[in-house]
Amino acid sequence: MIGGVRLGIAALVGWAGAWLWAYGLAVLQPLCEPGSPFWESAENNSYWARDVRWSAILAVSAVLAAVSRRSWLVAVALPWLAADIVLDRIDPGRPALLPATLIAGVLVTAVAIPAALRPPRRPLALWIPLACLFTASTVVTLESPSDAEPQLALSRLAAYVVCAIATIVCVLAALKPSVLERRWPVVAGFAVAVALFGLAPPWVTFGLMALGAATIVLLREPWPGPRRAAGVVALHVAGLIAAGFVLLLTLLQAGRPFTALAGNEPVNAADSDPTLLIWSVTLAVVWAALVHLAKTVTTQPRPHPAAAG
């Protein structure tokens, strides 16, 4: 992508994500606190607005890394998450919508301009498109305890859209141009599958997520042949489903420290306090590490029989 196109993509996703984050902070978060007509007690999914905001932060940060092909730029999410927790604790309310959008959008643009106009470097790290893919597939099924909030459906749809766009942008940035020229039909099929996340039942969406992750990995590597590629896909699907459930059980209380830092009411002891972002990023990093380890092991030269003797 030329610099102007990269800058346009970064600005589009950046401002959309900035508005969604600000909307989540100013409008959605008050729905998740005592005093809201939808609030009964702190339980599973009570802080669903946090997942909407954090999904937007991941999408924007990933796109900034993608347009520059500098994976370290995804770290801009860290100070943004810190600011989110501080503002969540302050509870600025609806008046913060416009200023929060403008401040976040201007800061994202300030990072995007030099990032997009510099010559891109090596392909994006594998875990970044995987994290966007996993987040898109989970945030589209986001629920609240009551599921009665009129803003819930459109908010999770908006979070899904920005994460889906970020996924496709990151996949393109994770491929070499020569690979993209040869395998563009597969990339197009992948984009269609990501679009189906919003239409399929949750269990189908999870299967599509695992299949999409296998596709991302196979796109980055030479085709090993149809039969072996099918085996790799099957291994990825089975392994990701198993790893995803294990991490889900492990991270059921991962949101508790952030709930406390934000000054929100703790979830009752009988329920869990997970966060989609922590699960998605953890699964992406673990799976990318396993893929790298498997590649290292399988590409090691075998000792020659004569040398072994």
UniProtKB/TrEMBL annotation:
Taxonomic path: Bacteria, Bacillati, Actinomycetota, Actinomycetes, Micromonosporales
Domain of life: Bacteria
Transmembrane segments: 7-27, 96-117, 124-142, 157-175, 184-200, 230-255, 275-294
Protein name per its UniProtKB record: Integral membrane protein
Record keywords, A-Z: Membrane, Transmembrane, Transmembrane helix
